[in-house]
Design a protein that fits this description.
Elements (H helix, E strand, L loop, with lengths): L1 E9 L3 H18 L4 E8 L5 E10 L2 H9 L2 H4 L3 E9 L10
């Protein structure tokens, strides 16, 4: 299994959209918990939400993307862009996955 980092940037009206889709998004993550190694919001210096960081464990990038493709934050328009990169830990607790 490999790890993939999803760097998700919020779009316009992110606060309202996050509120609308929060419960469904949490349910989605709970249903796919086995795929999430880490997940959480990204904030700016003012503490405002600007995106999310997801670390997904999957066989390949296509399988990792399949986990995120139906995420309510993506489907509901919270995230305006997503960058995906393979993550290869070399130090820290990640190394002993």
């Amino acid at each position: 299994m490999a790890l993939f980092c999803f760097y998700c940037r919020d779009g316009e009206n992110n606060d309202k959209l996050r509120e609308v889709h929060l419960e469904a998004q949490r349910e989605w993550m709970a249903q796919h918990e086995e795929n999430y190694r880490a997940a959480g919001p990204l904030t700016n210096a003012k503490g405002e939400f600007v995106g999310s960081l997801l670390i997904i464990e999957a066989e390949d990038e296509a399988a990792a993307r399949a986990t995120v493709n139906d995420d309510p934050y993506l489907v509901g328009g919270v995230w305006q862009s997503i960058r995906v990169d393979k993550f290869e830990p070399v130090k820290g607790r990640w190394k002993d996955r």
